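Write out the 3D structure for:
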Amino acid sequence: MKVAITGATGFVGSRLVQRLHGEGHKTVVLTRNTTFAQKVFPSEAFPNVEIVAYTPNASGSWQSVIASCDGVVNLAGEPIGEGRWTPERKQEILNSRKLGTQKIVEAIANANPKPSVLINASAIGYYGTSETATFDETSLSGNDFLAQVCQAWEAEARKVKDVGVRLVILRFGIVLGNGGALGKMIPPFKLFAGGPIGSGRQWFSWIHVDDLVNLILQALTKPEIEGVYNATAPNPVRMADLSQTLGQVMNRPSWLPVPAFAIEALLGDGAIVVLEGQQVIPKRTVQTGFEYKYPNLQSALTQILN
């Protein structure tokens, strides 16, 4: 295959490129920063990777590379868990997803021949937050800021169906691996100062990065996979259980809770990402026959940390 990827230098994207390259596929890395991308994917180590400069929110000559691809994986978007959500920051978070997806769909619409599939990232923030509800792919959307972002993001992606291209939307849970959210939780535990964040009762719906990459590969290669799938492990946990399991795997205590006000002081509105969660079940994903390598938190954390 030849696959175009946005967000390819990020935590999930770089793992996906490595995997595709290892299996002999060609990848087109669409990036705003070609110098950085060349450091992440040096040509001598990644001869099958083509690096193309693009402007996510604007049409341009970069769009022509889509015509030679079998599939497109759209992972790009401003990080949501870093820094305070000022009005300007919220606009950036929304635009990077809405306009970025709009331009990818525009490129696919103009391509001849067209890729056969678009795999578009979304997030479980689509469902809003709750300590009591359980959500699957058929659940209604929430109405907070992140839910609205996901709705706008997915609405742009759905327009690709108008030009006859198969669409797979993957609603990502919190991705666990070397880096990402887990990378921020580990240092306090190493210093014997780890513990749950906030009340500890909020749900934490997660997925191991290798399972997520496998899910993307399944979506690329199986034409019967279409529509929305939750990219989460089948066993979500509460924050207190996450902290306890992390402590056990690291052989460290989990005794020092991080108070909600400390997170709110740091992140403002963005604190909702870690202080309020949602219990998300990957019902449709399991129905496809997808086999998780890491269905349980203990096995996932053990693999990552060891």
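The first helix runs from residue 11 to 22.
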